[in-house]
Every structure is written in C-alpha cells, then in structure tokens.
Design brief:
The complex is a heterodimer of chains A (293) and B (237). Helix content of chain A is 75%, strand content 3%. Chain A has a two-stranded antiparallel ribbon with strand order 1-2. In chain A, helix 1 packs parallel to helix 5, helix 1 packs antiparallel against helix 10 and helix 2 packs antiparallel against helix 3. In chain A, a hairpin with a 2-residue loop joins strand 1 and strand 2. Chain A has one domain: ABC transporter involved in vitamin B12 uptake, BtuC, CATH 1.10.3470. Chain A starts with a helix and ends with a helix. Chain A contains twelve helices and two strands. By secondary structure, chain A is mainly alpha-helical. In chain B, 38% of the residues lie in helices and 27% in strands. Chain B has ten helices and ten strands. In chain B, the strands form two sheets. In chain B, strands 6-7-8-3-9-10 form a six-stranded mixed β-sheet, sandwiched between helices. Chain B has a four-stranded antiparallel β-sheet with strand order 2-1-4-5, covered by helices on one side. In chain B, helix 3 packs parallel to helix 6. The chains are: A mainly alpha (293), B alpha/beta (237). At the A-B interface, helix 6 and helix 7 of A face helix 2 and helix 3 of B.
Chain lengths: 293, 237
C-alpha cells in the first residue's frame, strides 16, 4: 500500500516538477510573475485533445505538438503583455495584477468557446494495460507520464548546464545589460524562454490530463496554485529547488489523500507554503531574490 | 584616417534629467582617449549610449565610419565595440571560466576561443587558479580583471572602459593602469572613463573633460593635464 502510494506520488510530483520548472525558468529569466503561464497548461491539454479526437493523431505525436502550440501561445502572450510591464518601476507587482486579469479573461474566453464540461481523451488514447511489480501497479499512462517528465526535465537541465545557449540564458537571467554587451541578443533569449516555459506548461497539461483523464478550461488555475507553492518553496528562479519541491508536493498530496483525507491534500500543501514563507522566505533551497540581483 | 569611434552631438536623458547635452568625442585607431569628470558629469550615460544600453535622444555615433546610432546592444558588440561596464558587472553566479566563455559568445571557432583564453590567462594569471570558482566569490580587483579579460575574449576593435579603478585597493589600481598601458602599446583603441584623472591622463593620448553633460576642455592628455583649472579641480591642486 505505501509503495503504491509512493509510486503514485512520484508520478504526480514529476508533472508538478515539470510544470513548476517552466514557471521558475520564466520568472528567473524574465523577472516578472506571469500568471498567464497557467493558461498554457489548459491550452496544452485542449490542443492535445483536439489533435487526438479531431485529427486522430497518436498521443506520442500529439504531446510534442501540443507543447509546441502552448509555447507559441506563451510567446504571443508575453510579447503582448510583458515588454511594457518590465519597464515599470514596480514590475513584479504590476505584472502580477495585469497577468491575473489577462489569465482570468483567457479562461472565461475558453469556457465560452469550448464549454465548462469536463472532457476526456478518446478511449484507447493510451493503452489501459498495467504492469505489476512487487505488488505495485503502474499503468501505461503513468509510465508515459514518468518517461515524458524525466525526458523533458533532463533535456532542459542539459540545455541549461551544458550548452552555449543555456549559458546565454543564465547570463541574461542574472544581468541582462551585461549579457547584451557580450553580444547576446537578449530580446530573442526572452522569447525563447517564453517558448520553452510555455512548452513545459503545455506538456504538463497534457500529462495531467492523461493521468486524471479530465480536461476543462480552468484546470490551469488549480495547477497554478501548486506551481506557486513549488517555486516559492523551491526558491524563486531556482530550477533544482523546483524539481525537489515538485516531487515532494506530489508525494505529500498522495500520502495525505491516502492516509488522512483527500479533501485535506490542498490544505496540507498550502500549510507547508505558509510554514516555509514564515521561516525561510527565500525558499528551502534558494537564495533570497534580493541577493541574486 | 577615419576615426575608429566618432560621437557627434550626443544627447542622453533619463526622464526629464538631461545627462549628456550634445558632446563630440573622436577616438583615432590605436589611441587611448580618456573622458574625465566628476560624479554625475554624464560619463557613464555616454558609455551606455555608445553601447546601445541607454536611449539616444539626439546625435550620432559612428564606428569605423558605420552609423551605429540606436543599434541594439548585441549588434554593436558584434560590430567589434566592447565595453567593460561600470561596477564590473561580472556574472557572479557563473564560474570564471563561464564568464570568459561569454566574452567570446560571438566566436564559434573552439581553437580560436582556447587561444584567446590562453592569452587572457597570461595577462591575468590570478584568474587561472580561479577558473572553476564563482565570479561572485572574487575580490573587487579580481572581478575587474575578469571583466577586462571577458571583454578581451571578444577581441575588441574598440574597447570602452568605464571606471576600471573604481573602488579598488591602490595595488590593484596600479595593476589595472599597467594593463591599460600594455593594451595601448599593443595598439588597442580605447575610450577610458575615469574619476582617477591623474592616472588616466598619464596613460591617455587625448583627453576630454566633461562637466554637467558638456565638454568643457579637450586636447592632448599632456595639454589637459597642464591646464590650471583641470589641475585644481581634478588633480588635487
């Protein structure tokens, strides 16, 4: 029983980590809190739904296409909303308000267009078979989620730590002006980061959609609350922190639901957030944002 | 010969504050030109405008005859004008090696990058033992050397140095000016901004004195150093 719960928790946590990684990357580089990030999560799930249902694509093809589509949506939203905001003296607070308004408008637009009902992937999107190992059951969907999350997280970490492009992204995150003096095209890096983070958000939406087989316009909203918990606990802009905190949150939620009460799982997550903010405002793993600037 | 860098009628303002009010500066190839002046005279605004980091309200900047006015910073760097900015601005969270690699961001030939890094480490031997360290853990003087090494990794056609001696211990100040003198001997074209006027005038060919956003005096470094008003205001009597 515990082993099964832990496996489920790790799987859920892997998608939280994936989603939070995109969020923290966006904050770390663009230096604004962009709540429209949650919309890329819903958008990814709906694009994958349309591609599997209407076009009849295999999920293995629909997932990367949905991620790409969400990434492009993020680039579009960011270029519309962020350039003006980033020039403001209180960019972090202003961006919170403006993007909150924008994301609520987007969710309602989506609901008006597609309806509020919960939708499901067509039967057979993913094989219903499950393997059992030492009493732990892992479905094909869960296997795909784990593989896709690990692959995407691994690719992003490799990009950031081993490539010249990743070095340029980290330079822009730390000192945009100095990065420009090195010949780095900072506006293009900002767009690329929007694309990458939007794609991670969208992929997260597809994977969570598959895991629970329930897709609806506001799904990005509850995910965004978890994204906040994860990046605050992990340290704003800290990628390793987001990975650890995302996994931990998934495990804690599943264990709370399994051993205490499923209606308490969100309470536990937010209680942890409050406790962390109280004692270590810079996050468990991160350095204070002020010190990073 | 066309000047390597020619600034004409440059005006820079922040909001309602006019920081630079129509200055003309010319740097010939192979020359070291210094811009001296008090705090707030407009020196750093001028440097930021040249590199494309501050908005130019009026005027023109030419690099080897090419008009680069209002180009984005990355294009100006690609054109060969590199700056060591005020306050050094090293990437503190990255290693010394990564900082140097970023200086050669526009170079793709690995052998060339390695050769340049070897030359930079020869010039700044202290950096060699610190290659794997985070730049933020270096002392101020070491960070200044890293910032200069990083710019040299880009093989600058024109090098801008903004207050390279600011906040450094006297020993480091001497070392930095010795390196500027070396670069001059090697034929590097340099525009140097300094508050340490006596050291700057010693190493420069030409000098401009900036007061409240305007050039009030210019000429050979020796002439400017001999000027009584300059001596009184900037050279401590």
């Amino acid at each position: 029983m515990l082993a099964q719960q832990l496996v489920n928790g790790v799987l859920l946590g892997a998608t939280y980590a994936l989603f939070a990684l995109g969020f923290t990357l966006m904050f770390g580089v663009l230096r604004v809190i962009n709540l429209t990030y949650g919309f890329t999560f819903s958008a990814g799930a709906f694009i994958a739904l349309a591609l599997t249902r209407q076009v009849g694509l295999n999920i293995a093809l629909a997932l990367p296409l949905a991620a790409l589509g969400s990434g492009l949506i993020a680039v579009l939203l960011d270029s519309l909303l962020l350039p003006r905001l980033r020039r403001r003296p209180s960019a972090e607070l202003d961006s919170l308000m403006v993007t909150l308004g924008a994301v609520l408008a987007l969710y309602s637009l989506m609901t008006a267009w597609l309806g509020p009902d919960i939708r499901r992937f067509p039967p057979g999107t993913i094989s219903a078979t499950a393997i059992e190992l030492a009493g732990v059951r892992v479905t094909a969907a869960q296997g795909l989620i784990l593989a896709a999350s690990l692959l995407l997280v691994g690719l992003l970490m490799a990009l950031m730590t081993t490539t010249k492009l990743g070095l340029a992204i980290r330079a822009v995150a730390e000192k945009p002006d100095a990065a420009g003096l090195m010949g780095i095209n900072t506006p293009r890096i900002a767009h690329l980061v929007s694309l990458l983070s939007g794609a991670l958000g969208g992929a997260g939406g597809v994977l969570i959609g598959l895991n629970f087989n329930a897709i609806q316009p506001y799904m990005g909203e509850s995910m965004m609350l978890r994204g906040f918990v994860v990046i605050i606990v992990g340290g704003m802009g800290d990628m390793r922190g987001a990975l650890i905190a995302g996994l931990a949150l998934g495990i804690i939620e599943v264990l709370t639901a399994g051993y205490i009460d499923s209606s308490l799982k969100e309470m536990v997550a937010f209680a942890i957030l409050v406790a962390v903010l109280w004692t270590r405002p810079q996050g468990l793993f991160g350095r204070a944002v002020g010190q990073r600037a | 010969m066309a000047p390597a860098l020619e600034i004409s009628g440059l005006c820079v303002s922040y909001g309602r504050t006019e920081a630079v009010r129509g200055i003309d500066v010319s740097v010939q190839p192979g020359q070291v030109v210094c811009l001296i002046g008090a705090n707030g005279a407009g020196k750093t605004s001028t440097m930021r405008a040249i590199s494309g980091l501050a908005k130019i309200r009026q005027g023109q900047i030419r690099l080897n005859g090419t008009d680069i006015t209002a180009w984005p910073a990355h294009r100006i760097a690609a054109q060969g004008l590199l700056q060591v900015p005020e306050g050094r601005q090293v990437f503190g969270e990255l290693t010394v090696a990564d900082n140097l690699a970023l200086g050669a961001y526009l170079v793709s030939d690995r052998a060339e990058i390695a050769a340049r890094q070897a030359r930079v480490l020869q010039r700044f031997p202290r950096l060699r033992e610190r290659l794997a360290q985070h730049a933020g853990s270096l002392s101020g003087g070491e960070q200044q050397m890293l910032a200069m090494g990083r710019a040299l990794m880009g093989a600058p056609g024109v090098l801008l140095l903004d207050e390279p001696s600011m906040g450094l211990a006297p020993l480091f100040v001497d070392e930095i000016f010795a390196i500027i003198a070396d670069l001059r001997r090697e034929g590097t074209t340099i525009l140097l901004v300094e508050q340490n006027a006596s050291a700057a005038l010693e190493v420069a060919d030409q000098a401009y004195v900036l007061e409240q956003g305007r050039i009030v005096l210019s000429g050979t470094a020796a002439d400017v150093a001999a000027n009584e008003a300059v001596a009184a205001a900037y050279l401590g009597g």
